[in-house]
Amino acid sequence: MSSTARPPEMTDGFHLIVDALRLNDLSTIYGLVGIPITDVARAAQARGMRFIGFRQEQAAGHAAAAAGFLTRRPGVCLTVSAPGFLNGLVALANATTNCFPMIQISGSSEREIVDLQQGDYEELDQLAAARPFAKAAFRVDRPEDIGAGVARAIRGAVSGRPGGVYLDLPAKVLGATIDAEVGRASLFKAVDPAPSQLATPESIDRALRLLAGAERPLIVLGKGAAYAQADEELRELVESTGIPFLPMSMAKGLLPDDHPQSAAAARSLVLKDADVVILVGARLNWLLAHGRAPRWSAECRFIQVDISPEEIDSNRPIAAPVVADVKAATRQLLAALRPGQITPRRAWLDAIDAKKTENVQRMQARLAADAAPMNFYGALRAIRDVLAEQDGTFVVNEGANTLDFGRDILPMHEPRKRLDCGTWGVMGVGMGYAIAAAVESGRSVVAVEGDSAFGFSGMELETICRYELPIVVVVFNNGGVYKGDEVNRFSSDPAPTALLRTSRYDKLIEAFGGAGYYAADPETVASSLREALASRKPALVDCVIDPTAGTESGHLTDLNPQSPLRPA
Questions:
Q1: Please, what are the averages of pLDDT over each run of 10 residues along the chain (568 residues)?
Q2: Neighbours of 85 (CB within 10 A)
Q3: Which of 345, 407, 356, 402 is nearest to 376 (CA)?
Q4: Contact (CB, 8 A) for 151 and 188
Q5: What whole-number distance in Å separates Cα of residue 485 and Cα of residue 505?
Q6: What is the pTM (predicted TM-score) of this model?
Q7: Domain with 74 in it: what CATH number?
Q8: How many other CB atoms are there within 10 angstroms of residue 265's CB atom?
Q9: Does 560 reside within a domain?
Q10: Is residue 192 part of a domain?
């Protein structure tokens, strides 16, 4: 070789991981930098990717999970090793439980040191720790395997039932250099990572026969139906059959909440009296009382549309399982459906309408009463009225009472515009979900937060301000976990559920350059929110409500055992 020959172009693990993500059309990374992954973020920005840097890894992971739900592409969360990895792991586990596609990429200590427990910096067997909480977990031990690792992670996250995947990158692999041409040749794009899964014709016929014989049918739409983006197909199924539908929380908006066939305002009635129920992307878990009496009729028969055969018969026998992805199955049902084949009984529809009218009138009376001090109804009425003036605004909602009241009072008219704590009921998702919604869509976001729930990720206000995101956070400030009126009669310490009543959450965002509003009545809530949304800049409304408003555990009092020796 001539002494004047140019040295070969080189690349390293930092650039290969970024190039592999870009090749697979992933353009945003949510994370927090530190040893050993800081240069991954720098390389991502240099390659034209967006890096959204958080203040805590759990919030970054929640953002990646929400991005996966909204886009059907895996959201990417980048974390440091050991403690940072563990912070992100909470969000990864939550993503897997919620069936959101997400990839957590973490730097790690060297394998040979971890295996001999020799005490490396932030030493932890992260792969072993992640496996019980993820859909899949992989480690890359050579830079030339990064492309395969990314492709497998993507396929694992989005295929079948979506979920969280962990990808472990030891520091030695990130820092290793190889010939750039060899590196480029090692990368590839995953082909059709989430292929459509059709139902068998027999299962479609079985489901339609069961529905045709029903007198009191019901369609339950879960967040899996929202994720499927089968919006038009589901609308056609509902409207062509005339069957009432009940949307689960994150399925609200698939059909507008004011749709005449919505049974949301008669939820207890339809669960108790339906004789055939078709579950579309919904699971018979605790959110649906496991399908058991007395919430459900013991004679009710179920059709379940789910991509995972393991979900079938999980709580109640499923008379007509339809194992397929939601969009494919809905198209098959529509193709096989004969005109007039399914006709809900008039008495069933009339009973639902009567109960809806009764419950709506009761709710309207509560919303119209201007309590002083302000309660949940007054504050949420104000938010509802402002949101009615908006188009395409996302609503993020978490808390106990704030979530429960918000789900009933804030109507949704568009699909995938509501994000909340989901299957696990996890608090602290709010800021991450709000950031992802704003980043992925460019639309305004209103995050309606209980003060306790907000506390889990409140420092992400700085992230919102740093990236100048159009997010308005409304903190329902009643000075407590659940509510703020508990008194400790045994010492000078605050009661277990008490928070500082004098907290001024509006001052927090002002410290970071955002707009803070203080609101103690519905009119001020409305005017503050309206002004904040018009600005499209970061803002927070400290919404002060009655400390006695709410109940312990919100609507989940039956899940919260209390000591028989509890002080009066």
A1: 71 98 98 97 98 98 98 98 97 98 96 88 94 98 97 98 98 97 97 97 98 98 98 98 98 98 98 98 95 94 98 96 98 97 97 98 95 96 98 96 96 97 94 98 98 97 98 97 94 96 97 98 98 98 96 84 79
A2: 24
A3: 402
A4: yes
A5: 19
A6: 0.96
A7: 3.40.50.970
A8: 19
A9: no
A10: no
Side chain identity at 314, as an amino acid letter? S
Q: Is 493 exposed, middle or buried (0-12, 13-18, 19+ CB in 10 A)?
A: exposed
d(CA 102, CA 108): 19
51 three-state secondary structure: strand
Provide CB contacts within 8 A for 356, sequence distance 6+: 263, 265, 266
**Phi/psi zone of residue 340: left (φ > 0), alpha (ψ -120 to 50 degrees), beta?**
left
Which of 64, 61, 91 is CA-nearest to residue 426?
A: 91
Q: Are residues 48 and 129 in the same domain?
A: yes
Q: What counts of helices (H) and strands (E) characterise the chain?
A: 22, 19
Which residues, including other chains, have CB under 8 Å from residue 84's CB and lie 6 or more apart?
Answer: 32, 34, 57, 106
Do 161 and 102 share a structural domain?
A: yes
Same domain? 297 vs 387: no
- Strand 177-179 to 471-477 pairing: unpaired
Residue 205 belongs to what domain range?
A: 201-353
DSSP state, 512?
Answer: T
Residues 165 and 218 in one domain: no
Q: Backbone phi, then psi, for 212, in 5-degree steps?
A: -65, -30
323, 353, 383 — which closes off a domain? Answer: 353
Is 81 inside a domain boundary? yes
Are residues 295 and 385 part of one domain?
Answer: no
